[in-house]
Amino acid sequence: MSSNLAVINFTIGGTLTVSGKITLGETVLSSSLMDIQGLTTTSLNVTGTSKFDNFLPTSTQTPVSNAEFTTKFYVDTADNIQKTYIDDAESSLNTRITSVDSSRKTYIDEADLSLNTRITSVDSLRKTYIDEQDTILNTRITNTDAAQKIYIDSYYKPNDVIQMKVYNKGDLTLTYAQGTTYTSLFTEIFSSKSNDSTIQVTFDCQWGISGPGYTDDSWKSSIFINNVIVATKIIVLKNDNRHSCIALFPISGAIKNYEKGNIFISIKAAAIQSVQDQTLTLNSYNVSYVEIQN
Predict the structure, then answer these.
(1) 227 and 280, same structural domain?
(2) Which end of the chain has fewer surrounding CB within 10 Å, N or C?
């Protein structure tokens, strides 16, 4: 075959082997295996598996459009640039985070220390204030108690009257007792001023018991101080009363007192025996409390 061949239309049905350089001005169409060395064309359509000396084609060109192939070198270069950017950005971000974390930690630690100092200082000041006020109050209480004791001891000798209260109350026609269970006729609270005294109570009133007068009845009246009986009077009606009292009232009683404070006083009465369930009725009364220095 000639070393220079010009072909207008050339169709290959079998195998074409070319060892030289071929320049084609048109599209190369091949339905069979074709081995061409040094092929230059503006449009190449290939079906099946295409190899160029068993390697991918190489190029030193930089792609300028989305439809162009690129090279491994170009991809690696772009990848390294992107990696460098990401690494730098990550380093910068880590630095900022570390710096911010450190600043915030320092701020929080300092604020916490300041708060602890303020709390400790305030607690200490308040504790000191409370302790001082407590000491002052204890001193005042102690001094007041001592002064009161000195006052009482100095001005009240044994058997001196520390205080006396007398009450004249109005009508008690609605107050009555019936049956063998104690009925409270009068109650009052009396405040003692000494922690070493005697409290004396006297109660008197107008009173009467219903009934025909020939029944065998007996009654009792009592003084309760702090719920303890300190005096009791008993009367026996119709019988020889040489072993009983003539009247239920007046009644008086006393107790030893060893502390200052409220003393609860109550006058109560009850039937011991009442054949026809008679009624004890009270009218106007008076009561007196006397506190005497022991």
Answers:
(1) yes
(2) N
Helix, strand, or coil (residue 81): helix
Beta strand pairing status for 161-169 and 34-36?
A: unpaired
What does pTM read for this prediction? 0.48
- Regarding predicted confidence, which is higher, 131 or 69? 131
* Rounded percentage of the chain residues whose pLDDT exceeds 90: 20
CA distance 288 to 166: 4
CB 153 within 8 A of CB 238: no
Select from 183, 186, 193 the least CA-distant residue to 287. 186
Of 111, 129, 155, which marks where a domain is finished? 155
- Residue whose tokens read 């003393």: 263
Last residue of a domain, one of 57, 79, 100: 57
Can you tell me the mean pLDDT for 225-245? 84
Are 125 and 110 within one domain?
A: yes
Mean pLDDT of 200-211: 89
Give the length of the chain.
294
Q: 9 is in which domain, residue-wise?
A: 1-57
Nearest-5° angle of CA 226, CA 169, CA 183?
A: 45
